[in-house]
Amino acid sequence: MTIIVDSRRINSFLRKTRRGHVLKTTHELYLRNDISCGSKLCQLCTNETKILDNKVNNGNQLIPNGHYLVVDTNVVLQQIDLLEDPLFTNVILPQIVLNESLAIYKRIRTLISVPERKFFVFINEFNQDTYILRKAGESPNDRNDRAIRKIVQFYTEHLLQKSTGSNMSIILLTDDMANRDLARADGLHAFTLKEYIQSLNRPELLDRLVLKEESFDLEKNIGKRKEIIFPEHITLSEIQRGLKSGKYLQGTYQASRENYLEANVFVQDSEKYTQLFVQGYRNLNRAIHDDVVAVEILQETEWATPFSLVIDDKDDDQGDLVIEQEETGLVVPGSSSKKQASCRIVGIIKRNWRQYCGILQESVAGAKFHLFVPHERRIPKIRIESRQAEQLKNSRVVVQIDCWPRCSRYPQGHFVKTLGQLGDKDTENEVILAEHDILHHDFPEAVLDCLPQMPWKIMDECGVHIADVTHFVRPNTAIDLEARERGTTVYLVDRRIDMLPVLLSGNLCSLRDGEERLAFSVLWELTPDAEIVTTTFHKSIIKSSAAMTYQHAQSVKDDQGMQNDIAKSLRLLHLIAAKLRKTRMENGALVLESAEVRFRLDTETHDPLDVINKELRETNWLVEEFMLLANISVAKKIYELFPECACLRKHPTPPASNFDPLIKAAEAKVGDFFKKEKHGQQQTGHLCKELAESLDKAVLPDNPYFNTMLRMLATRCMMQAVYFCSGFQSEGKSFDHYGLATPIYTHFTSPIRRYSDIIVHRLLAAGINADVTYPDLLNKHHLQQTCNNLNYRHRMAQYAARASVDLHTQLFFKNRCTDEEGYVLGVRKNALQILLPHYGLETTLFLRDENGKSICNYNEEEATQTIKDVTIRMFDRVTVQISVDRTNLQRQRIQVRLVKPPIDGFSVSPVTKTQMSLDGRDVDDISVPSKRIKLTKK
């Protein structure tokens, strides 16, 4: 394309450096006269990019004829939820606005990419008719507002002159009142977004308006209080000075799941504190889960003790009054040894608000304001203004937070959209995906275009190509970028959300028996004692002899009558794996436990029919040992080849204090246990060896499940394993993987479902000259950013999987009432945490009567609860009755009631056969055809 340069602008300005020097910066800008206006009405703009159509009036009473909309920055940034409504079409996005909208750039790009929406980006900063210079003394914001008004003026005159018979109007949408009034003074059409949508026959759109904090007149709208509740947040400049002087610390705010008046702040870059405790409304000071906050450490005399209560924010609390007793009653004096280093929130460094799923709390009929109850318990209730509360009372809805005024107990927000009917499985699945930010959209056409044509076969020259996934997923292609963003495959009970299209994940990159497949091979030469002599890495083409499930492989290995090559190979691999495993255990590797179950689903409805405990066989850990060995071998190799940009995975050593609950619980049953004081003195290669040995010895003959529960508690003492770039690891800190007791580790063995493995494959391939490098691969800053996203996606995938299990467990018990044996896994001041091994379920048994009054005597030192003459301890075996509490249709949940030990006036009678009915039928009479049953993959 020929570029016509009509004029040139040279802008110069002075800039002062940190050292006090003054630098002159010059920008040379070439302006053009061939930039298209994007309108199909225009007869003179020759550019083929014409998107804006001859719009028919959408029912707006302000402008009777067709019109285009020009939006300014504040509308795009603050009202993106409204702009995403299909009502808004033929929208002109100035380049200057797009440049300032990086926070929501992906959402804007999505709107632009949908042809039906007709969102057009107008390059105003290079157009000679719309570019303007900044005036002396004019702020950048005022200059940009003037530039946007210039665009409106340009389009008005341009279409009038260069179109035939058009009466198209150009409308400026702005929530900046000064910008609106200046536009009107120039004779332009300008409205606030509220003014524009009020003239439409769409009253529900008003619910989606973002209102600024100053627009909330709480005295008028709420009428209950106007006094200040919370301290004022200090400014960012004050925060920066305080961080520099050490007066304040920066950290990530993590709200408690069990007590909405408590939280922890995980401190960054502090030698003394890694975690600080926060308790009480005023100290929490309007921080929301995942916010980055500035904190001030309290005097040691003000440090608080976590309250051993499970507290839910009251369902019937309208949130207009702060009950002082709730706050002051939670400050537990306790002994100095139980107090935790405490702080108060003084300012917000970065808000990490997102859209939240939940329900509207029932309120007074005709009320204008309503409380939204988030699905995520760590998020406070949100006050929204809604005109459709009656229609939404049985729906799952999405809400966005706008602000949190100092005089309101709850943050203020706005309605975004409805997900569906409350209790509907598809709706509840959508909640899980949305709450955990799981990317589950269909793969775009650009991604599918990267796939090979079928039928596909290995060509002769493929012997030197990258094996497995990286052969098909080339760097920075559409399929690579999509996989990088998704990060991992997500496994829910009734579905799998793939990182890669199924053609790769289920076919071309899946090792099938009897079919040739590209592979990346790690080969070892081992001694009879499973000691490694040599390790080599190769691109290869393999043809698998057989594809077997773990169960099938186990049966082949155990059947001594089978003496074919596959059976003999399995037995040999088992011997080697056993020696490898023995060596790892001797080095201190931990064997931990977690409750994991599988559901048997109806193949048509995907409803749960039964719950099955996951069974682990020898072949499970046979494969695991060789996977671990491959990962460790590759980790050593890529770090040797690329010490500054190796993608590794570490599992940090937990702080000694993390083991306190585990030690206390174990010593109450088995006496002497793990000595945490020696924990930090272990050498690399012997990490957690004493813990592993202590766990092995902690057994109770009369309670075979005790050791399993102890290992579950040990799992909760651990830190989160994370991906990281070796070049960003602080000097002096190790790469240790604590749980596996290895000094270096990575992920190499699952490139189909983990993007980290794709990176590792590319590094290894480049290191052995099987492929070339590319800039991003050896850019440690880029790699660390990718690792941060992978850590986030991996964590969200885990949470989503657990939420899916919880959902299907609730669906399973929806029409059931059954007794089940369980164990006490935690003793709280007002409740017991009950583990039900058969269902992989941990529930809360509240110790209160029908009126909500406590009926127990709690002994914190011994971790016991005494109810009348019965004392219940950690790890005690109990029987509970499981059902679904449906008294509140909006918040149905699993509930358990005590059956055994029997306590007069509290325990319930065992269920009878007729009580265990399903949809009105006796359980024993229910038969399910085998053809309609399948096992989910976990």
TrEMBL record:
Top-rank taxon: Eukaryota
SUPFAM superfamilies membership: Nucleic acid-binding proteins, PIN domain-like
GO function terms (MF aspect): 3'-5'-RNA exonuclease activity; endonuclease activity; enzyme binding; RNA binding
Predominant place of localization: cytoplasm
Domain RNB: 435-770
One Gene Ontology term from the biological process aspect of the record: nuclear mRNA surveillance of mRNA 3'-end processing
The protein's required cofactors: Mg(2+)
UniProt cross-references to Gene3D superfamilies, sorted A to Z: 2.40.50.690, 2.40.50.700, 5'-nuclease, Nucleic acid-binding proteins
Keywords for the protein's UniProt record, in alphabetical order: Cytoplasm, Exonuclease, Exosome, Hydrolase, Nuclease, Nucleus, RNA-binding, rRNA processing
Localization per record: Cytoplasm; Nucleus
Residue ranges constituting the PIN domain according to the UniProt record: 67-181
Signal peptide, first to last residue: none
A GO cellular-component term linked to this record: nuclear exosome (RNase complex)
Family: Belongs to the RNR ribonuclease family.
Entry protein name: Protein DIS3 homolog
Species this protein is from: Didymodactylos carnosus
